[in-house]
Design goal:
CATH class of the largest domain: Alpha Beta
CATH architecture of the largest domain: 3-Layer(bba) Sandwich
Largest sheet: 9 strands, mixed
CATH topology of the largest domain: FAD/NAD(P)-binding domain
Length: about 375
């Protein structure tokens, strides 16, 4: 079997990339090792549409988040994907955090984030009486989206433009040919002019199978675990669906998200995962979650929290420090997307467009 482009990985970034390439006229085959699309990192996050606050100006994360958010909201509206612009409050819980919140607002403005407003303690007392904070940054463009619905809509559009998306197929190795690549898919092989490695948590293994020294390039994936707890009906909760503290190493702090079904989640936290299958929520973490959220939502107690689910993030730094998204061709004809953690869902369409522009120019 021969195709022009093989996309490895059926998460939101891989499916968005397959769609962008198919819309550009390429013959595309996407393979996903799981039985369904979007069941790994894509389905195990907060489903938040991020604005672009947290990332250094000029970084790929900043650019892709801002551009991707605009494209994502437009696509969701046109395709009928359930989503909502809710806005988000980022809190300074006391005066010692005010300077950090100011710096976050400056970074957001440098990244081109619009609809930013300051909310005073008196405003919070009136409109968010359950919250405790001295000031808040109100980010009007943030929201929530149905991640499963998004992947399904992207997949439909990809197929409508001729792409084949196949699940339950794992990649066993890549071999470079004079004009392209031979990819082993179990007992079968596919010859493809281009290959896109969008394998998420397994992207470093795919790169290594093609002969890339992932350690020398800083492309080794370090899975970090983020747990979520669901708030019981008796728990206090804010009016706004999205409420965040200031970010911490490895994540954005234990925040509150009300999903499209009306369930409020606390999380995620951030810590190195013991293994790639470390997907169990430790009920004993409820006390730590209640303490973290209780800093800005007084009255939340461990008994208000029920174990939810766990997501794994493909970090490129073992210590959880900032690392930019990688979108790089190495060697020719093989494009890697690595370290696509948050805000990967928001940035997916922009990252897909970047890959498509690179490969369509080489067609």
């Amino acid at each position: 079997m021969e195709v022009e482009t093989l996309v490895i990985g059926g998460g939101v970034v891989g499916v968005a990339t397959a769609r962008a390439l198919a819309r550009g006229g390429l013959r595309v085959l996407l393979v996903e090792r799981h039985a369904r699309l979007g069941t790994e990192t894509t389905s195990r996050n907060s489903g938040v549409i991020h604005a672009g606050l947290y990332y250094p100006a000029g970084s790929r994360k900043a650019r892709a988040c801002v551009a991707g958010r605009r494209a994502l909201q437009a696509f969701a509206a046109a395709a009928g994907v359930d989503h909502r612009r809710t806005g988000k409050l980022v809190l300074a819980t006391d005066a010692t955090e005010d300077a950090a919140l100011e710096a976050l607002a400056e970074r957001a403005r440098a990244n081109g984030v619009d609809e930013l407003s300051w909310r005073s303690a008196s405003w919070l007392a009136k409109h968010e009486p359950r919250l405790r904070a001295v000031r808040a940054l109100d980010v009007g463009v943030s929201g929530v989206i149905d991640a499963h619905g998004l992947v399904a809509a992207l997949a439909r559009d990809a197929r409508d433009h001729g792409a084949d998306l196949v699940t339950g197929v794992a990649v066993d190795g890549l071999e470079r040919l004079p004009q392209g690549w031979r990819v082993r898919l179990g007992p079968e092989t596919v010859a493809s002019h281009f290959v896109v490695n969008a394998a998420g948590l397994g992207a470093d293994r795919v790169a290594a199978s093609a002969g890339v020294d992932v350690d020398a390039r800083g492309w080794r994936v370090h899975p970090w675990k983020g747990s979520y707890f669901a708030l019981a009906a008796s728990a206090p909760r804010p009016e706004r669906p999205l409420v965040y503290p200031l970010p911490v190493t490895g994540g954005l702090g234990v925040h509150l998200t009300r999903d499209l079904a009306g369930q409020t989640l606390a999380g995620p936290d951030a810590a190195p995962a013991a293994a790639m299958d470390d997907l169990d929520v430790d009920p004993g973490r409820a006390a730590a979650f209640a303490a973290a959220v209780g800093r800005y939502l007084p009255g939340l107690r461990p008994e208000h929290l029920r174990p939810g689910y766990v997501g794994l993030r493909p970090k490129l730094r073992a210590d959880g420090a900032f690392a930019d998204f990688v979108v790089e061709e190495e060697p020719p004809g093989l494009v890697h997307l690595l370290g696509i953690e948050s805000p990967g869902l928001t940035a997916a369409l922009a990252l897909a467009d970047e890959v498509a522009a690179l490969l369509l120019a080489r067609r």
